[in-house]
């Protein structure tokens, strides 16, 4: 079972999600939060697998709540579910540690697929917001287009595996290296490409045909 916590300040939204997700045999709703402060508290006590996190909420917003939850070192994944597709919301959410970013107009089947994907450790972005990330990655003109030329052959291989949504353990198995070595390569890749996290690295790889 995938244990899910819903965090949204709108009662109607929470009810709708609860009603729909309860029909899924492999998903269990373990709690509901009406603001970011409650989301942090419930995440700590309930330890869900996935948190559906709204962004604009009272007391503590979804970005700060996500950051605080990630800082606690919990194993849960945060899937942002919002109405905002702009870069000003998207990039901070990803940097805060969100594993996925979906819009509230997402098709029900795609939402379920996204919950499963982030639970597996994969990155998920709504198609409407992908272009915003691409724009951010290429900010500054042509400089970013050649950054991956600084990567070693092995680092390019690891980056290609990241683009497929694989975890460090899966990459290690695929390339016949240790997880510790993979972790080192990932750190080097993010530093050389001047990226904040694996989601941005995956999008960079896709954009440049790596993998």
Care to describe what's here?
With 211 residues, the protein is α/β, with parallel strands linked by helices. It folds into two domains: 2-126, 3-Layer(aba) Sandwich (Rossmann fold), CATH 3.40.50.2300; 138-207, Orthogonal Bundle (Arc Repressor Mutant, subunit A), CATH 1.10.10.10. It has ten helices and six strands; from the N terminus they run E-H-E-H-E-H-E-H-E-H-E-H-H-H-H-H. It has helices at 11-21, 36-46, 62-71, 87-96, 108-119, 127-137, 153-162, 168-175, 179-193, 198-207, and strands at residues 2-7, 27-33, 50-53, 77-82, 100-103, 124-125. Strands 2-1-3-4-5-6 form a six-stranded parallel β-sheet, sandwiched between helices. Helix 1 (11-21) links the parallel strand 1 (2-7) and strand 2 (27-33). The protein is globular and about 50 Å long. The two termini are 32 Å apart. The model is unreliable at 140-145 (pLDDT under 50).
Total discrete domains: 2
**What is the approximate shape?**
globular
Indicate the multimeric state: single chain
Number of alpha- plus pi-helical segments? 10
**Spans where pLDDT lies below 50 across 5 or more residues:** 140-145
**How much β-strand is present in the residues?**
5-15%
User: At the fourth CATH level, what is the homologous superfamily of the largest domain?
Assistant: Response regulator
Distinctive features:
alpha/beta; 2 domains; globular; 51% helix; transcription regulation; six-stranded parallel β-sheet; 10 helices; single chain; transcription; 211 residues; 6 strands; Arc Repressor Mutant, subunit A; 14% strand; Rossmann fold
